[in-house]
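Task card 7
Instruction: Convert sequence to C-alpha cells.
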Amino acid sequence: MTVIRTAAAGLVLLLVAACTAPTPPRSQASTAGSTACARPQGPPEAETATTIDVIEQAYFCILGNYYSGATLDARSLLTTGFAVLTQELNRNGRDVPEATMPALTGDHKADWTAFEAVYRKITDQVPDLRDRLAVVTLEAIVAGLGDNHARWVHDVKRPPDYYDGDGYGLGLQANVSGPQVNGNPGTAVPPLFVTTVQGGAAQAAGLRPGDVIESIDGSAPFIDGKATPAIAALYPQYPQARPVRLRLLRQTTGRRWSVTLKPGLYQRDLAALQVVRSKLLEDDIAYVRLAGFAPDSANRVLKAISRLRTSRTLIGVVLDLRGNGGGSPVEATRLLSTFVHGKVTAYQCTVDGTCKTSWTDDTVELLNLPLVVLTDRSCASACEHFSSAVKDLRIGRLVGTRTAGVVSGPAQPYLLSNHTMLSFPDRHHLGPNREVLDRIGVPPDHYVPMTPKDAAAGRDPALAEALTLLHK
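Output:
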C-alpha cells in the first residue's frame, strides 16, 4: 500500500486493496473476549460505533501483525492514547478524577487490562462523550506508531453530489504537498508558494502560480526555516469546511494582499485527472507524466512510448513523477523492468532483518532508451521505490528535488469488528543497496528546484535540464 496524492484517491485505493487482499496476516493476536482482526474479504459493511472493545482489537492486531509488533514497547501506544483522551476531556470541560494513567509494566495483556479498567471508569462518568473518546483514543494509538503508512480509516464521508472529476478543497496546489505535510513535514523548505491553480475558490480569487503564501490564518507557514502545522490548512478534507485566510505576495509586482478561501467542490480539468499523459518533445524525446502507480499503469506508459515511437527514432524518455504519491509496488517493479533486467529493485524486511527480495520482471520487453526521471517532494512510496532503483541501478538520472521520504513499507489492511479498516506495514522497505529511504527520500542526481519566479513565468527548469541531459 501507499501514500496517494489526495485524501480521496488514497481512500479509494486503500479500500480497493483492502477488499482484494487474499494473504492471511502473519498472526492474529487476540485476548479472551475479543475477536482477532482479519483480512477483509469483500465490500465493507456499514460502520458501527467505535468502542473500547474495538480499541482492544486494534491494539492486539498491531502487536500481532505490525512490522515491529513482536518487539514493540506497547506502553508508548497506550500512553499516547491516554494523553489524547485526557486532552479531549479537557477540551470539553469534563475532566474527571479517575483520569489518571495506570502503572504499566511492559506486559502487553496486563497493561491492556489496567488501561481498559481506567478507561471504562472515565467513560462511565461522561457517557455523552463515550463515542468521541473512543475515536480519538484509537486515532492516537495508531498515530503513536509514527509510521507514515499506518492508518485507521473510519467515518468515511464524501461531499454531497460528488462525482468523478470533482475536486474538493481550496482549488490550489503548493510546493509543499498534502502527503508531505502529513507524512514528512520536516522535509519542507521555504518559501511556500502556489504551483498550480486547479479551480474553485483559488481561481475565483485570482490566485496565480508563483504567489507566495506568507501566512495562513495568521500563522507563518515556516518558523526558523521549519514547516509549521499551519500548512495543513491548504488541504482541507470534507466535511471540514472552515474558510482559510491567506496573506499573499506576488513577487512580480510586489503586491501584498489577503484573501479568504472557502473549501468546496470544484470541477477539475479532466486531462489533469489522467494517470498517464504523454507527448513528443523536440521531435525525438518521449515525455510521459505518471500521476500514480495505478493498476496497469506500467503497460499504459509502455503503450504511450510506443505510440510516440511510431515512424521516428527516439533518443530518450523523460518520465515525470512529480506529484506521484505512489500506488502499487508491483507496477513500479514492472515499469523498472522496461529499462533493466536481472536486478533487485527493493527489499521488504521484518524487524529481525529477514527480507523478501523484489526482482525485476524479465518477461517485460526492454525499451533500450536513455531515461531521465523528474522527482520532487511529492514523489512518495512506490514512486520512491522506482526512483531509488533508477539511481542505485544506474538505469537513468534523477532531476528535480529529493523525494518525500514517505516509504515505510507496503500497508496491509485489517478489518475491525465495527467495519472500519486498520492498515499498516508488516515489513519495511529498503532500497536496492539496502539503504533506508523512509524519512530520508531519494536525492536527485541533478538538483533543480522550482522557484516562485519559475512558477509565475510558467518555466519548468527541471524539464529543461532533462532535455539538455538527453541531448548530450
